[in-house]
């Protein structure tokens, strides 16, 4: 499995870019698509299970040895406003199919999207897989004040449980920015009483997005982070997105 992940990572990084991108992705928050018709994003991300604050001093490679929660996803822009995607996240064996519609309100200072998804996953290792629907609304402001501040708000609902995620992107140069996300606990899920948060750095090229992040949960994706955490640890992760045009 590790060899497959490293091979995919190397392939995605090595390909040259053939299309310019205008999307401003966050770490886990969903954002209105900035792709054009016929473009596709392939995403490979991971969060290590080795906590940074309890890192074993005698095992430099614990970040690899302890494994990671891994995500592989694909999104395709079918029309100017409609995109479809599928993804897989390893920890909960989470398989997702999604369909979203993007509303372009640049003149009003923001863009928005609505998303409907169908998910098949398990609550914990050893538990049976279950299928369920999920709905989400996302808003993202356009760049302003020379430097780019982007505020993203996700509001999602799953089986009667709603959640909220907020984030900000600060552009420090043309291709480099700082990221922050916060997911307040609205409806307590099991023993998860702590709100999730993460901080990161993003570098982009014409066809790649590279994100390095640290947060207090090993979960991936806004839907899981909205459920909070009971962990007091910090986890590091990397995310690579590759844009293709057809």
> Termini, distance in Å?
29 Å
What multimeric state do the chains show?
single chain
Tally of contiguous helical segments:
3
In the residues, how many domains can be counted? 1
- Which strand order do you get reading across the main beta sheet? 1-2-3-4-5-6-7-8-9-10-11-12
The third-level CATH topology is: Porin
Beta percentage is over 45%
Please specify the SSE layout and strand pairing.
Blueprint: H1 2-14, E1 39-48, H2 62-65, E2 68-77, E3 82-89, E4 94-105, E5 110-121, E6 130-141, E7 149-158, E8 161-173, E9 176-183, E10 196-204, E11 208-215, H3 222-225, E12 235-245
Antiparallel strand pairs: 1-2, 1-12, 2-3, 3-4, 4-5, 5-6, 6-7, 7-8, 8-9, 9-10, 10-11, 11-12
Task: Offer a quick outline of the entry.
This protein has 246 residues and is mostly beta strands. The protein has helices at 2-14, 62-65, 222-225, and strands at residues 39-48, 68-77, 82-89, 94-105, 110-121, 130-141, 149-158, 161-173, 176-183, 196-204, 208-215, 235-245. It starts with a helix and ends with a strand.
List the keywords:
about 250 residues; mainly beta; Porin; twelve-stranded antiparallel β-barrel; 3 helices; globular; disordered N terminus
Description:
With about 250 residues, this protein is mainly beta. The chain has a single domain (about 1-245), classed as Porin. Helices cover about 10% and strands about 50% of the residues. The protein is built from three helices and twelve strands, in the order αβαββββββββββαβ. Strands 1-2-3-4-5-6-7-8-9-10-11-12 form a twelve-stranded antiparallel β-barrel. Residues about 1-20 have low confidence and may be disordered.
């Amino acid at each position: 499995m590790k060899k497959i992940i490293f091979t995919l990572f190397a392939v995605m990084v090595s390909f040259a870019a053939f299309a310019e991108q205008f999307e401003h992705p966050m770490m886990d928050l969903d954002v209105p698509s900035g792709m054009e018709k016929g473009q596709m994003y392939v995403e490979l991300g991971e969060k290590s299970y080795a906590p940074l604050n309890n890192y074993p001093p005698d095992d430099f490679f614990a970040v690899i040895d302890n494994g990671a929660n891994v995500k592989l996803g694909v999104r395709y822009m079918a029309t100017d406003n409609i995109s479809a995607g599928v993804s897989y996240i390893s920890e909960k064996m989470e398989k997702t199919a999604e369909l979203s519609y993007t509303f372009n309100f640049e003149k009003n200072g923001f863009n928005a999207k609505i998303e409907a998804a169908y998910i098949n996953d398990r609550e914990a290792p050893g538990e049976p897989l279950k299928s369920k629907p999920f709905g989400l609304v996302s808003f993202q402001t356009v760049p302003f004040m020379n430097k780019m501040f982007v505020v993203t708000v996700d509001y999602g609902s799953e089986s009667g449980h709603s959640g909220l995620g907020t984030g900000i992107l600060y552009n420090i140069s043309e291709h480099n920015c700082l990221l922050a996300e916060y997911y307040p606990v609205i409806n307590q899920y099991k023993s998860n009483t702590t709100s999730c948060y993460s901080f990161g750095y993003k570098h982009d090229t014409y066809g790649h997005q590279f994100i390095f992040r640290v947060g207090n949960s090993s979960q991936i994706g806004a839907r899981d982070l909205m459920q909070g955490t009971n962990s007091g640890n910090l986890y590091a992760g990397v995310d690579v997105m590759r844009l293709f045009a057809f």
